[in-house]
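To: structure subgroup
Subject: Chain for Friday's discussion

All,

I'm putting the inputs and outputs inline so they're searchable in the archive.
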Amino acid sequence: MDQTLPAGPRCFGDGDPLYAAYHDTEWGVPVHGEAALLERIALEGFQSGLSWLTVLRKRDAFREVFHGFDPAAVAAMGAADVDRLLGDARIIRNRAKIEATIANARAVLALHAEGRTLDELFWSFAPPSRPARLATVSDVPATTPESVAMAKALKKLGFRFFGPTTAYAAMQACGVVDDHVATCPVLLTAP
């Protein structure tokens, strides 16, 4: 973080050290790699209907039970694993979200079988950079034409629990877009 920037309020995260650290060091920073992107897609899906802080507090457990989000290891998980995870209070216990994570890992492997990567596909939906940051959090969209297109493309490839709003949240989290607002003290460099 550039300490010479004005000390305005964060876009989010003020008031909780874990949330503030995520905002300051991860959110909006470019993410590449199959496991890292699968993790972000899965966590955004698990967040649906819940607070992101809830997901952050359970993130280490998610990484453990989903084998560091290694696509091959997650894709190999079956019904017994789903049942085991439904009993694990350290994570968000939602059958549809757990099964979607496994299905999404299998979709990543199907991409690989076609000679493609999740990384190249995910980043192919990057919009042009904005000339300036948005003024306020209320100016940040919930979806964009790019997130709608990404969700449609991934759904066609077998990804689940990944609609346009979740796609846009993943784009924000992975630095595909920079939605830090004008008064935010975090300064990012372009990918």
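Points worth raising on Friday:
DSSP finds nine helices and no strands in the chain.
Residues 95-113 form the longest helix (19 residues).

D.
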